[in-house]
Amino acid sequence: MLLLAWRNLTHSRTRLWVSAGGVGLALTLVLALDAIVNGVEHQLAAYIERSGAEVWVAQPGVRNLHMVASTLPAGVAAEVAAVAGVAAVTPLLYTSQNVQMGRDNRFSYVFGLPPGAAMGGPWRVAAGKTLPGPGEAVVDARQARDSGVGLGDGVRIFGRRFRVAGLSEGSSSLTNGVVFVAQADFARLRRTKGSLSYLLVRVAPGQSPEAVARRIEDGVRVSALSTREFARQERKVVGDMGADAIRLMNLMAFLIGLSVLALSVYTATLSRRTEFGVLKAVGAGSAQLVGTVLAQALYSVAAGLLLAGAVSFLVLPLVLPWLGFDLPLQPTLASVLKVALAALGIGGLAAVIPVIQIAGLDPAAVFRGGER
């Protein structure tokens, strides 16, 4: 049956490509949107995960960055550093506000870094300095480019002009940019002298971040979470704000994609009624017809899935930036498996339905030319 299905499917190359193309287009829609949603969710906590810290310390009750304010006494840094298992501590000042770049106002996370900060700075710099000095700022390269701002230009933060000394990459998301300034400038302009926002902690070798976080909370009146948990909380808070819209968009794309898939497989199977009528005329039973139809659907879905994977994960990442769309794409195995299983189920069902019509064919009509 598998060989017969393959020969029947490849008898007309044009029909094969149309069938695989229809399936591939439908699955590309689903896979691409899934990859975009996963990429956006991953990017929301990119700074947290790439900060170099293994534990984040904040004021009691604070468990994320977005739309919260955390204030810690400066003396807490020494207390946290004395906890067993803590190898290094970097104090961090933080706020969120609009940063003026050229004529644009960019909503940004603004971080104040101490001199020689070992954690919390940009992890990838496209040009210029990694850490800002007095009166300097390191800004997101994409946002700077979109606003027509480059190295040496000025941006306004806290109402004051800062010179762009570095351009970072990978730290911003669709919701915000990330800007770094010197901690002394931050404290002076925001009048936060004597207080901190967060402490970034690196644990000693062999220590568990979760265990060290618990010891910090037990020994110091603060909130301490491992970087993994802190990032999860950040994604949850930001994701919940637009979760309904994202889920609706994803569901609609999934349903549209599966509908197109079902129509493509159904049409491709129905167009081969004559071939199946010939099989029935020469003695093929219903089980053989169903097996052949399912095998053809499997081949079509597999070819479409390969085509969709190539377009979604190889072509789109190259084409989207060229078209001016700066969208993060992050495919996952879970997404591919979900789409593959749904496609096989819907494709099989759409292919078997025409068998009901094929089973009622009069074999003699095929030879008389009555069924075309």
Nutshell version of this structure?
The chain is built from 13 helices and 12 strands.
What would you say this structure looks like, in words?
Helices cover 53% and strands 19% of the residues. Strands 3-4-9-6-8-7 form a 6-stranded mixed β-barrel. A two-stranded antiparallel ribbon has the order 2-10. The two termini are 23 Å apart. It has 2 domains: 2-43 and 242-368, no CATH class; 60-221, no CATH class. The protein is of the alpha+beta class. It contains 13 helices and 12 strands.
Q: Strand order, main sheet: write it out.
A: 3-4-9-6-8-7
Number of helices: 13
Helix content: 40-55%
* Count of separate structural domains: 2
Radius of gyration equals 29 Å
Which overall shape is indicated by the principal axes computed on the Cα atoms?
A: elongated
Question: Which properties best describe this structure?
Answer:
six-stranded mixed beta barrel, 19% strand, 372 residues, two-stranded antiparallel ribbon, elongated, alpha+beta, 2 domains, 12 strands
Task: Detail the topology: elements first, then pairings.
Elements: H1 2-10, H2 13-44, H3 46-49, E1 55-58, E2 72-73, H4 76-81, E3 86-101, E4 104-113, E5 125-128, E6 136-140, H5 141-146, E7 154-157, E8 160-168, E9 177-182, H6 183-190, E10 195-196, E11 198-203, H7 209-219, E12 223-226, H8 227-241, H9 243-270, H10 273-281, H11 286-322, H12 333-359, H13 363-368
Parallel strand pairs: 4-9, 6-8
Antiparallel strand pairs: 1-11, 1-12, 2-10, 3-4, 3-7, 3-11, 5-8, 6-9, 7-8
